[in-house]
Amino acid sequence: MKKKSARKLTHIDAANRPRMVDVGHKAVTRREATARAVVVAPPAVMKLFVGGDILGPKGPVFQTAIVAGTGAVKRTSDLIPFCHPLPIDGCRILITVNKAREIVIDCTVRVQHRTGVEMEALVGASVAALTIYDMCKAVSHDIRIRETRLMRKRGGQHDVDVPSV
Predict the structure, then answer these.
(1) Is residue 111 part of a domain?
(2) What is the C-alpha to C-alpha distance for residues 157 and 145, in angstroms, rounded to an integer?
(3) E strand or H helix that includes residue 34
(4) Which residues make Cβ contacts (< 8 Å) with residue 16, sequence separation at least 6?
(5) For residue 74, how many other CB atoms are within 10 A of its CB?
(6) pLDDT band for position 1 (cuts 50, 70, 90)
(7) Domain that holds residue 63
(8) Torsion-angle region of residue 126: left (phi > 0), alpha (psi -120 to 50) or beta?
(9) Is residue 142 part of a domain?
(10) What is the dihedral of CA 75, 152, 104, 81, to 10 degrees?
(11) How many structural domains comprise the chain?
(12) CA-CA distance, 32 to 165, in Å (whole number)?
């Protein structure tokens, strides 16, 4: 039986120093990633949900979260030290309330480049979730951001699909 070789951290060089990965040799391809964040809010917050958005003391929460998340996607390389600045082709943030009355944020980012956009999608979903928290905390601090995770990526060396839970 052949043993599978262990994968290595790509942002650490042979001398264990941090580094930005050189992507100059990679082909420019279409790349896309979707990340999901789930926000659990108490009934006091969810009762403000009307017509597809939470109408809170600071305004339409979901619409504001979409704007904040999109801005965060564009600034990911300013926040994560070894992320490459990317010319984002598209960003879509969809916020819904599921049957369990949880707020589900899906952030999909697209680019034509040498490196993927997983971090951009994760940052976009995270900042949208944090914006929901910020805008609703006047009603209740009992709000949890339960998870943020990569759901799908396309392009590059490996495609990834993570089953929904």
Answers:
(1) yes
(2) 31
(3) strand 29-40
(4) none
(5) 17
(6) very low
(7) 29-155
(8) alpha
(9) yes
(10) -20
(11) 1
(12) 21
Mean pLDDT of 19-29: 76
- What is the residue whose two structure tokens read 């969809």? 94
In this structure, which amino acid lies at residue 24? G
- The verdict on whether 53 is a catalytic residue reads no
Residue 154 to residue 110: CA distance in whole angstroms: 9
Is 13 part of any domain?
Answer: no
Taking Cα atoms as reference points, which of 54, 118, 46 lies closest to residue 86?
A: 118
Tokens of 5: 């070789």
- For 36, the token pair is 């999901």
What pLDDT score does 160 carry?
82
- Are 35 and 122 in contact by the 8 Å Cβ rule? The answer is yes
Does the predicted model carry a pTM greater than 0.90?
no
Catalytic-labelled residue, pool 134, 142, 159, 161: 134
- What is the domain-level CATH number for residue 65? 3.30.70.640
Q: Does any domain span residue 16?
A: no
pLDDT score for 22: 67
Please report where in the chains the tokens 């990317």 appear, as a residue. Answer: 86
pLDDT tens-digit profile of 48-84? Answer: 988 889 887 778 999 999 999 999 999 999 999 999 9
Please give the backbone phi and psi of residue 85, each rounded to the nearest 5 degrees, phi first.
-65, 130
H helices, E strands: number in the chain: 4, 8
